C-alpha cells in the first residue's frame, strides 16, 4: 500500500523544552501509532512582506499546490500509459534526482541554488508556477505525439496478415485488412479486355448462400469462378470473375446481400512496400516511446520537486500567519497509511487542539470538538477562506499522497 504523508507545523511554545528535536519526539509520542514515522521537515526562513501580501500568497499557494498535485498525477498517468500499466517498471521510473520519491521526501532540503531563499516569496511562487506549466506542456506534447505514432502503427499492424498458401487463415478482419500480402496475383484475371476479377468478403455463416447464388447475381458471371483466397475468424475472401460490362451490377447486388466488395489493384512490389512502411513506423514508435519515457521520467522528478517546494512555502506562510514572529516553530513530516491517517489526525487534534482557541473545545467525555461558527468567524476576521474545501485545523497541517 502506498504511504500517505502529512506535514505538520507547531509553535515551539507548545513544547516544554523549546527544542526542535524534543518537539519531533513529542509529536511522535502524541501519535504513538504503528506504521507511522515522524521525521524533521526543514523549512527555511524566507523574506516576509506585509500581512496583506502574506494573506494573498497563502491563497495563491493553496491554488498552486492543487496545480502541482494535478501535474504530478497527469505525469504518473502518462508514464502508466506508455508502460502499458506495468507497475513494476512504473516504480523504477518514479525517481526524483535519481532517488526513490519516498527517499527524496524523507530527506528533503530546500534547493537554495534553484530557489534562492533571499528572493521575495512572490518571485518564488512565480518561478514554481512557470516550471509546473512547462513540465505539464512538455509531457502532454510528447505523449500526444507518442499516441499518434502508436495509433498509426496499430492501424498498419491490423492491416498486416500472415502469408501462407491459399486458403490462408488470418487473425484480423478481412473487411478492413490490406489485401496486398493476401492476394496471389496469379489467381486474378489481368489485362483482359472483357473479363475482370472482383474480391468479395462474405461472412462465414453466409458461405453456402454465396456459393449457391453468386452466379445468378448479375448477367455474365463466369461460372464456377469463385475461389476462396483466405478466411479469418469472421469472414471469407472470395475472388469472382465477371464480364466488365456487368461488373457494377454484380458489385451492387453483393452489397445488397451484405457482402463487402474490396477494391484491389495489383502493384508490383506492393507487398514489400507495405512491409517497409510497417518497419519504418515500428522504428519510429520505438524512438518516440523512448523519448516519451525520458520526458515523463524527467517530468515526474521535476513536478514532484516543485510540489514539495510549493508545499514548503505554504507551510512557511501559514506558520507565520498563525504563529507570528519571531519564527519560532517546528515542522515535521508524518508518514503513515491511508487507513491510519484519520487516527493520526485525531491524535494530533487531541494533543494540540487548544492552539485553535475558541474554535475547539471538548465534550463531556473529553473528546475534541470543533465550533464551526467560531471557526468561520475567526478565519473570516483573519482574512482566510472558509468555504467548501477549506477545513480549518488548530495548527498547520497538510496531507499529500503520491499517485
UniProtKB/TrEMBL annotation:
Keywords: Hydrogen ion transport, Ion transport, Transport. The keyword Zinc does not apply. GO terms for cellular component: vacuolar proton-transporting V-type ATPase, V1 domain. GO terms for molecular function: proton-transporting ATPase activity, rotational mechanism. InterPro entries: ATPase_V1-cplx_csu, Vac_ATP_synth_c_sf. SUPFAM superfamilies: Vacuolar ATP synthase subunit C. The keyword Transport applies. It comes from the Eukaryota. Belongs to the V-ATPase C subunit family. Subunit of the V1 complex of vacuolar(H+)-ATPase (V-ATPase), a multisubunit enzyme composed of a peripheral complex (V1) that hydrolyzes ATP and a membrane integral complex (V0) that translocates protons. V-ATPase is responsible for acidifying and maintaining the pH of intracellular compartments and in some cell types, is targeted to the plasma membrane, where it is responsible for acidifying the extracellular environment. Subunit C is necessary for the assembly of the catalytic sector of the enzyme and is likely to have a specific function in its catalytic activity. Subunit of the V1 complex of vacuolar(H+)-ATPase (V-ATPase), a multisubunit enzyme composed of a peripheral complex (V1) that hydrolyzes ATP and a membrane integral complex (V0) that translocates protons. V-ATPase is responsible for acidifying and maintaining the pH of intracellular compartments. Subunit C is necessary for the assembly of the catalytic sector of the enzyme and is likely to have a specific function in its catalytic activity. Reversibly leaves the enzyme after glucose depletion, causing the catalytic subcomplex V1 to detach from the V0 section. V-ATPase is a heteromultimeric enzyme composed of a peripheral catalytic V1 complex (components A to H) attached to an integral membrane V0 proton pore complex. This is V-type proton ATPase subunit C. It comes from Hapsidospora chrysogenum (strain ATCC 11550 / CBS 779.69 / DSM 880 / IAM 14645 / JCM 23072 / IMI 49137). The lineage of its organism: Eukaryota, Fungi, Dikarya, Ascomycota, Pezizomycotina.
Amino acid at each position: 500500500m502506498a504511504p500517505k504523508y502529512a506535514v505538520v507545523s507547531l509553535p515551539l511554545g507548545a513544547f516544554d523544552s523549546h527544542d526542535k528535536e524534543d518537539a519531533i519526539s513529542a509529536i511522535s509520542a502524541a501519535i504513538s501509532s504503528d506504521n507511522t514515522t515522524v521525521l524533521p521537515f526543514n523549512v527555511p526562513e524566507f523574506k516576509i512582506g506585509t500581512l496583506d501580501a502574506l494573506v494573498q500568497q497563502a491563497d495563491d499557494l493553496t491554488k498552486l499546490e492543487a496545480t502541482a498535485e494535478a501535474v504530478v498525477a497527469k505525469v504518473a498517468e502518462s508514464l502508466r500509459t506508455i508502460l502499458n500499466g506495468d507497475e513494476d517498471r512504473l516504480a523504477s521510473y518514479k525517481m526524483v534526482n535519481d532517488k526513490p520519491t519516498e527517499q527524496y521526501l524523507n530527506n528533503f532540503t530546500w534547493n537554495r541554488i534553484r530557489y534562492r531563499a533571499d528572493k521575495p516569496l512572490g518571485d518564488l511562487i512565480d518561478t514554481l508556477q512557470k516550471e509546473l506549466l512547462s513540465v505539464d506542456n512538455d509531457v502532454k506534447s510528447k505523449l500526444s505525439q507518442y499516441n499518434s505514432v502508436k495509433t498509426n502503427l496499430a492501424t498498419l499492424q491490423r492491416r498486416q496478415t500472415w502469408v501462407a498458401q491459399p486458403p490462408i487463415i488470418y487473425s484480423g478482419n478481412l473487411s478492413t485488412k490490406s489485401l496486398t500480402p493476401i492476394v496471389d496475383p496469379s489467381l486474378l484475371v489481368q489485362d483482359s479486355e472483357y473479363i475482370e476479377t472482383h474480391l468479395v468478403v462474405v461472412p462465414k455463416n453466409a458461405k453456402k448462400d454465396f456459393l449457391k447464388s453468386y452466379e445468378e447475381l448479375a448477367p455474365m458471371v463466369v461460372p464456377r469462378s469463385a475461389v476462396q483466397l483466405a478466411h479469418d475468424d469472421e469472414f471469407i475472401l472470395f475472388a469472382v470473375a465477371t464480364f466488365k460490362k456487368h461488373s457494377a451490377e454484380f458489385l451492387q447486388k453483393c452489397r445488397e446481400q451484405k457482402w463487402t466488395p474490396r477494391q484491389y489493384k495489383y502493384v508490383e512490389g506492393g507487398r514489400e512496400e507495405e512491409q517497409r512502411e510497417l518497419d519504418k513506423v515500428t522504428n519510429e514508435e520505438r524512438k518516440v516511446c523512448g523519448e516519451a519515457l525520458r520526458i515523463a521520467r524527467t517530468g515526474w522528478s521535476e513536478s514532484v520537486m516543485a510540489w514539495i517546494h510549493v508545499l514548503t512555502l505554504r507551510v512557511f506562510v501559514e506558520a507565520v500567519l498563525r504563529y507570528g514572529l519571531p519564527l519560532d516553530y517546528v515542522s515535521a513530516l508524518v508518514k503513515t497509511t491511508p487507513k491510519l491517517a484519520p487516527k493520526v489526525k485525531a491524535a494530533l487534534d487531541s494533543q494540540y487542539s487548544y492552539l485553535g482557541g475558541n474554535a475547539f473545545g471538548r465534550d463531556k467525555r473529553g473528546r475534541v470538538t470543533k465550533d464551526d461558527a467560531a471557526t468561520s468567524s475567526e478565519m473570516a476576521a483573519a482574512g482566510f477562506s472558509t468555504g467548501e474545501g477549506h477545513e480549518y485545523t488548530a495548527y498547520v497541517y497538510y496531507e499529500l499522497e503520491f499517485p
